[in-house]
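Practice record 12: protein with 3-hydroxy-3-carboxy-adipic acid.
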Amino acid sequence: MPDITLKRIKDTTLREGEQAPTVYFNSEEKCVIAEMLYKILGNKGYLEIGFTYNPFYKQTVKDVVKHFKDTGIVKARLLSHCRAVRYDIDQSWSCGVWGIVIFMAMSKNHLLHKFGGLSFKDAINKISEAIRYAKNKVGFEYVEYSLEDATSLPLKDVILISKIAEESEADAIKIADTKGQTSPEAFKTLIKQLKEKVSVDITVHCHNDRGLAVINTIEGLMGGATGIDVSVLGLGERCGIADLAITLENLESLYGVNTGVDFKGIPELYEYVSAASGIQIPPQHPVVGAFARIHKAGTHQKAVLKKHETYETINWSKYGLKSEYELGGMQSDELLNRYNLAKELKSKTVQIIRKTSIEKRRPLTSYEVSKIIERITGFPLSPQPQSYDVIAFIKTKQAFDELEFLKKVRMKFTEHKIPIKIRKISGYCDFIVEANHVRNLQVFKDIIFDLAKKGNFEVNLSIVNDEYK
Ligand code: HCA
Ligand code: CU
């Protein structure tokens, strides 16, 4: 097994994740997400919950800290993100976070273009001053210095800056591959060479611009880093950073690291963040995507039904999940075993399912399959649709408050973990609220009609059931 020591799993969905294009969390959502993360990550967990230099975002940091206090969770390591300036550090202290991450880039382009030609020496002094101020004057329990854009610097500079941070008493330094530009081999070597020169703990923060964030993060650990940054769905600037579930699954089951994470909570966490962020979980996303557990080809299905290991290496029960099988054009006869059909009837049914699916160019739902079986056998199964696509057409009345509408609708559906899309339109109505694969139609109806009553709008629903999706 590779030599990895993992001490810190820092989730930054609520800071880096909120820098993902189109993502805006409100305080209520942040509190729910932070609490879920706290419970899932276990005793290696750290949570970056936002930055404080913008008053709107600062308020959400304050609210999360208060929520943890009110809930009696005193051990959470809540962090905020600061520039290397006293103002940010003071603002963070006033929010009551446990620790901070001070970030400042030192690469040529950043010094010249972002900091208006700041000299290397002055920049070093700024970093050192900020760390000392946060640690010794203000008194934060934990101060991490983040070398933004570290992978654009020559090794000697990375070492020099890290040594300064260490001398200034930072608790950890972070090496950020801000532009996602490094290769796994180069990154491991960088961390290894740095590790030989400093004794302060190293954390890695890898962006996914080239799709290498997860492997770079793991290679960083192999090089001797002891901390990682991850986010739910890998959310972050541009293509984001290392995905929490993929990184932790691999560390635990491929690299033999005892992460201390409660994997059972991960599916619900992803669903919630997806609903709150409005970012759908890509179906082919490793580990948490809907396709990850679905077997399509009949030969695969047959084999997996006998022994999961024929086509699976991830233990789904750890997540409270099960393997699934697509009903459709390639399905195997075995999938119909639970209906106890005679052999010939079974093959006839399978032929019809395959043909229908190929004609419709999509899989069939179990509802449709039951309908086919009913038709062929004459035996009533009374299937229920399993999910619906719903479109709510919203017609506003006078004194309608648009901002309140957007806030309330999003909040209510998020509470019930129903991801929705809201569009402003013109013509027959003013907005549409769309949701796909809604399992509990009644809940959707209750929410939207209740909101309509209170919010001065009328609703009409169009519902597509399993048969016509
Ligand atoms: C940023 C850049 C950053 C900082 C890293 C960190 C990066 O958005 O401020 O301090 O966690 O990737 O370098 O996210
Ligand atoms: Cu980043």
